[in-house]
Amino acid sequence: SSGINAEYGVSDFWQADYTTIQSVELTAVEKRRLAVVRDLCRRKYRITSGSKFGGDFLVYPGDPLVYHAYFVVRVFAGEMEINAAELLALSRLASSVKKVAVAALVSGTVVRYISIQWSGLK
User: Fold this and answer.
1) DSSP secondary-structure letter at 81?
2) Catalytic option among 8, 60, 70, 98
3) Taking CA atoms, which of 5, 46, 82, 103 is between 20 and 30 Å from 11?
């Protein structure tokens, strides 16, 4: 079974319980992304792919068919040094689409967030 059931709509997909997914045969990057998905779902956010916006995820306050995304999230290893140019590019890209850039720093199952909002100089 693929786990996909055609009788469910898009809104039903966002109601999925991601806390029960087992981290079997996942790469380190996939495990970090899964930790972020679990944490954001626990906080009642909804998530879609953020690849078109330079991130890993787009984060919505509710159903993506009803709300616009608030955040573009990029996942990083918590122990990794983040390149300033990467953060600048993420924040400028997110700003250009009227969203807040968020760096999700993952160490094991602990997720910390840093939000970056480009304001420019006046």
Assistant:
1) P
2) 60
3) 103
* pLDDT tens track for 79-110: 878 888 888 888 888 888 889 999 999 998 89
Catalytic residue among 31, 99, 113, 122: 99
| Catalytic residue selected from 18, 52, 67, 68 | 68
Cβ–Cβ under 8 Å, residues 114 and 103: yes
**Is residue 68 annotated as part of the catalytic site, yes or no?**
yes
User: What sign does the dihedral 63-32-108-13 (CA atoms) show?
Assistant: positive
Q: Output the CA angle 13-111-85, nearest 5 degrees.
A: 100
What is the total residue count of the chain? 122
Is residue 60 annotated as a catalytic residue, yes or no? Answer: yes
Contact 117, 100 (CB under 8 A): yes
For residue 48, the 8-state DSSP code is E
pTM of structure: 0.75
Residue 17 CB contacts under 8 Å (≥ 6 apart), including other chains: 41
